[in-house]
Design a protein that fits this description.
1 helix
């Protein structure tokens, strides 16, 4: 689970534009008390809480890096 802070690279970007590893998926977003089933065109907002599944710790770390940074 990741909480998106306002300074994260992912804020106001579409999931598809973050280029996650193929084995990693955001399965749910909790936003302002609501639950959202995201698609590739879903934009990440500050304070979103993301539930992420990945096949390996390496892929999970890549997701973390891409949420926080542009590379």
């Amino acid at each position: 689970e990741f909480t998106i802070l306002p300074h994260f690279y992912a804020v106001n970007r579409r999931i598809v534009d973050l280029h996650f590893p193929r084995s990693a998926f955001i399965v749910m977003i909790r936003r302002k008390g609501d639950f959202i089933r995201p698609g590739g065109s879903t934009e990440i907002e500050a304070h979103d809480e993301l539930i992420v599944l990945a096949d390996s710790p390496v892929d999970f770390q890549l997701v973390s890096d891409r949420l926080r940074n542009s590379t």
